[in-house]
Amino acid sequence: MKVGVLALQGDVREHFSALIACGVYPTTIRRRAELDAVEALVIPGGESTTISQLAKSFDLFQPIRDRISHGMPVYGSCAGMILLADHILDAKADQESFGGLDITVRRNAFGRQVDSFESDIAFADGTPTPVRAVFIRAPWIEKIGSGIEILAEVDAHPVAVRSKSILATSFHPELTGDHRIHRYFIEEVARGALQQVQ
Amino acid sequence: MAQETGTARVKRGMAEMLKGGVIMDVVNAEQAKIAEDAGAVAVMALERVPADIRAQGGVARMSDPDMIEKIKAAVSIPVMAKARIGHFVEAQVLQSLGVDFIDESEVLTPADYKNHIDKWSFTVPFVCGATNLGEALRRINEGAAMIRSKGEAGTGDVSNAMQHMREINGEIRRLSSLREDELYVAAKELQAPYELVKEVAQKGKLPVVLFTAGGIATPADAALMMSMGADGVFIGSGIFKSGNPAQRAAACVRATTFWDDPKVIADASRGLGEAMVGINVADLPAPHRLAERGW
Question: Could you say which of A174, A179, A182, A188 is catalytic?
Answer without folding.
Answer: A174
